[in-house]
Write a structure and sequence with these properties.
Helices cover 33% and strands 19% of the residues. The protein is α/β, with parallel strands linked by helices. The protein has a seven-stranded parallel beta sheet, sandwiched between helices.
Amino acid sequence: MRVLVTGGAGFVGSHVVDRLVADGHDVRVVDLLHPAAHDGPPGYLRHDVDYRWGDLRDAAVADAAVEGVDAVSHQAAMVGLGVDFGDVEGYVGHNDLGTASLLGALHRAGFAGRLVLASSMVVYGEGRYRCAEHGAVRPEPRRPDRLEAGEWEPPCPRCGRDLTAEPVSEDAPLDPRNVYAATKLHQEHLGAAYAREHPGAVVTALRYHNVYGARMPRDTPYAGVASIFRSALERGEAPRVYEDGGQRRDFVHVRDVARANVLALAGDEAVTGACNVGSGTPRTVLDMAVALADAIGAGAVRPRVVGGYRLGDVRHVFASTERAASRLGFSAEVAFEAGMREFATASLR
């Protein structure tokens, strides 16, 4: 089938393209080549893919991109926490308006196929927590005064006791706590509205957890933490680990994420709604920094826990992968240690 991959020159998108081509699909890409992530067309572009450079917010670009396609993998977005709130117009413009423009073009084309949306675990805010006395609870955003005092763990909102973090499932309450998170949730809402109004259309929101692998952007405010640590190690600097390093995340390899996309696009059963895409095995941020330093070798500088924090960041969020396994037939294949060894020498953008 003919598949449109928006953002298909980028980190995740390019791996989705590779997987689709390997499976015999005809692939078209539209990509802005945003300067925050690219300084021009990357060297890993394929000769057997139809690449089109343009901004999806331009209706003419969007209309031409969707013409004649059977399925869409929507990866185009600004990602990460960014510099500060001054990035708000960029995030909303590229993520929300870009998605609206794509959906408008699909509407004009009468599209009724599968649309896979690159969503994110950031829509959850904090992950799932349990209090020994009150059961499942939803902690409030962490207060700056507690963070300044080094009190990293969110307390029970009812009794103030310590909480136990658990895997977060797709039916957890959604609570975006920064601009990027808010835009990803809005993209999900727009996609769901499209599916309701277009019989036959199926929209799957894949909530990526912490994706890493080859072709990640280098050390920028829009890069993932694995890339930031890798760039520091390459400079001979100790990766700076915020808080106490105990923040738990689910680090999932980009090849696994690409495979989840293709299952959602071309699998036997169409999947409506959200699915977490993760490894199913939580690791701390310090675990990741140490594993990466170990993979680089004996001469690598060791990670340094520096305290401090980033407003809008959360303490623990890691995936329940049961829905992805049962509905998509997806489970991660790249083990954490092997993935970090590969990532230590992988090419970055």
